[in-house]
Design a protein that fits this description.
26% of the residues lie in helices and 34% in strands. Strands 1, 2, 3, 4, 5, 6, 7, 8 and 9 form a nine-stranded mixed beta sheet that branches. The chain is built from five helices and nine strands, in the order E-H-E-E-H-H-E-E-E-H-E-H-E-E.
Length: 186
């Protein structure tokens, strides 16, 4: 009645999908799930011309611009999505990467209890492949470790081989069962 054409779930573990399947939902996206034990965080070299620092509230819109450039429409965050990522855990680490033109990447890492999460990592296309994502990721993992996380989780779309390689180079290990996003047409 409110004009919605479909309903989409969050990313679900295999055990959580059954009730949705029984209600008529179907898988629309599959995600790799990766885990890092945080025992060893791979060092990342400094980047020429790129500064990493804590993101400021006024840089959130610039981070969303990076997000729009880095992701397809299905995966892009809007203001509400970024706010959810920034408030989903008890502790959060919002970092930006900047060059002379402004924000070129950002990450959101969070910690709840002893578990850490890489909730978002995005780099503008013109700076991809230059180590910006690795630097943001390494910074976030060091932050998680410093604040008591014992491990960290991240997910990435199946087919996003570039991100998968980035996470694996950083020490993440692919978990045997991934995640799925499910959808039902109304």
């Amino acid at each position: 009645q409110q004009g919605y054409r479909s309903v989409i779930t969050a990313a679900l573990h295999r055990a959580d999908r059954r009730p949705f399947s029984e209600a008529g939902f179907a898988e629309t996206e599959r995600l790799h799930l990766l885990r890092h034990d945080l025992d060893t965080v791979v060092p990342t070299p400094p980047l020429a011309g790129i500064e990493l620092r804590r993101g400021r509230r006024r840089e959130q819109e610039a981070a969303l611009d990076v997000d729009r450039a880095a992701f397809t429409s299905f995966w892009r965050l809007d203001r509400a999505g970024l706010t959810e990522a920034l408030t989903a855990t008890t502790m959060v680490h919002f970092q930006v990467a900047r060059d002379e033109r402004g924000v070129v990447g950002y990450s959101v890492c969070g910690r709840a209890g002893h578990r850490g999460y890489v909730q978002r990592l995005a780099v503008t296309p013109r700076c991809q492949g230059r180590g910006v994502g690795a630097a943001l990721l390494g910074d976030g993992l060091r932050w998680l470790r410093r604040w008591g996380a014992r491990d960290a989780l991240v997910n990435t779309q199946e087919g996003n081989d570039r991100s998968l390689r980035l996470y694996q180079r950083a020490g993440f290990v692919l978990q045997p069962h991934g995640l799925a996003v499910m959808e039902i047409a109304l």
